[in-house]
Specification:
The protein is an alpha/beta fold. 37% of the residues lie in helices and 19% in strands. The structure holds guanosine-5'-triphosphate and magnesium ion (MG).
């Protein structure tokens, strides 16, 4: 599957709790550091208006789900081992977890906003640790890791650029394509850090680091979950994080709340739609007074106050508002909007804004891109060329020399 989100942060900040709440999985959670060692991988969904409403049709989704004209598009979460300072030098679980993040398009940094853990994830007096430090150190670790990859065989690279005239971006792409880093990312980072590829042998260490930092920001951007917002001190820290990092997307989150509500929804005790700031108790008689009281507190002090538990909202905002991904529906027949089996609007793909019709064909299958002839817009029934930029909720038939989709 295409779109992957890496879940990162120091030990015990709540990565696995967030993942379990989002995916309704049962991976091990613990109040001691390094509960997770091997990465947990699972699937959840982001929610967006479905194209079925535009065409007023009943759909038969295959790779996704449609509920009341809202399309649930699958994304992959990768919950990795906790990150401690010096991880790039092998401390804690070392670099293993970073390698697990190679395929991530974006990272969600789970921060313990209650300030109740030291930098290594050990419990300390609530409020005594400053989460601002966590944000700074995670970025530094990430940059060190990428720098290590970029600078491997650096001398050989610089001399090949200088003496053989090989393009630097090609050599870097070779190293970095496994990290989902594209030529576009590399060229943009060089431009933004004002560095000339031809003069790479003259780049200072600081300049190379600056280049890698810029590359990280566009290729592995970080979004912040101010988690444990249900705990004392967390709200004040959330506000401080916002002040300190005005350019970041920071969302208050209570992974614990989301899991509790989803579990109760699954048992039929409440009606709750993830992302909502409310729920309905279906059978109050089945709950003890104290349980009802607890639910009332959750509603008042978390859902109403912060606009929801934050888990679903964070994922939606990360994908659509922050990364500007759009949804595009490939079909076999642009009139009936079906695949070759007659399913209406069967599949939806998440692609970056600005994706062209030909690039979109490549998202479905490399063959389809290589043999691309033209596209057909199901709304307008107009032909579209390879360079035509797609819009959100476009329904497209791809016509290729090897058949169509
Ligand atoms: N109050 C509160 N506690 C939480 C929340 N999220 C997680 N926790 C608690 O924090 C502790 C650590 O949670 P985990 O999900 O195991 O943390 P982790 O980041 O995966 O930890 P490692 O795998 O060890 O790196 C557990 O005791 C959780 O119950 C939250 O939103 N609110
Ligand atoms: Mg864990």
């Amino acid at each position: 599957m295409g779109f992957s989100v890496g879940i990162v942060g120091k030990p015990s900040c709540g990565k696995t709790s967030f993942t379990n709440a989002a995916c309704m999985t049962d991976f091990k959670v613990g109040s001691y550091p390094f509960t997770t060692i091997e990465a947990n991988v699972c699937v959840t969904h982001v929610r967006t208006a479905c194209a079925c409403a535009d065409f007023d049709v009943e759909d038969n989704p295959q790779n996704s789900i449609c509920i009341d004209r809202v399309r649930l598009v699958p994304i992959k979460l990768i919950d990795v081992a906790g990150l401690v300072p010096g991880a790039h030098e092998g401390r804690g679980m070392g670099n293993q977890f970073l390698d697990d993040l190679r395929q991530a398009n974006v990272l969600i940094h789970i921060v313990d906003a209650s300030g109740g853990l030291d930098a290594e994830g050990n419990e300390v007096t609530a409020g005594s640790h400053d989460p601002v430090d966590d944000v700074k150190f995670l970025e530094e670790e990430l940059v060190e890791w990428m720098l290590g990859i970029v600078q491997k065989d650096w001398r050989r690279i610089t001399s090949r650029v200088r003496s053989e005239g090989v393009k630097l971006e090609e050599l870097l792409l070779e190293k970095l394509s496994g990290l989902k880093i594209t030529r576009g990312h590399i060229l943009r980072a060089m431009r933004d850090s004002n560095l000339k590829a031809e003069a790479v042998d003259k780049w200072t260490d600081d300049e190379t680091r600056e280049f890698v930092k810029t590359l990280q920001k566009s290729a592995k951007p970080i979004i912040i979950a101010a988690n444990k917002i249900d705990r004392p001190n967390a709200e004040a820290n959330f506000k401080r994080l916002q002040e300190e990092f005005p350019d970041y997307l920071i969302v208050p989150v209570s992974a614990l709340t989301e899991k509790v509500l989803k579990d109760l929804e699954q048992k039929g005790v409440i009606k709750y739609i993830p992302g909502d700031d409310d729920f309905e108790v279906l059978d109050p008689g089945s709950l003890k007074e104290s349980e009802l009281d607890q639910l009332g507190k959750i509603k008042e002090h978390i859902l109403k106050k912060f606009g929801g538990s934050g888990v679903q909202n964070l994922l939606n905002r990360a994908v659509f508002d922050y990364l500007h991904m759009i949804t595009v529906y490939p079909v076999h027949d642009a009139n009936s909007l079906t695949d070759s089996d007659g399913n209406v609007l069967p599949d939806v793909y998440l692609v970056p804004q600005g994706t062209t019709a030909k690039e979109f064909a490549g998202h479905i299958h490399t063959d389809l891109m290589e043999s691309f002839i033209h596209g057909l817009d199901a709304r307008t029934k107009m032909r579209i060329s390879d360079k035509h930029e797609l819009k959100d909720r476009d329904v497209i038939k791809i016509v290729s020399a090897k058949g169509s989709k």
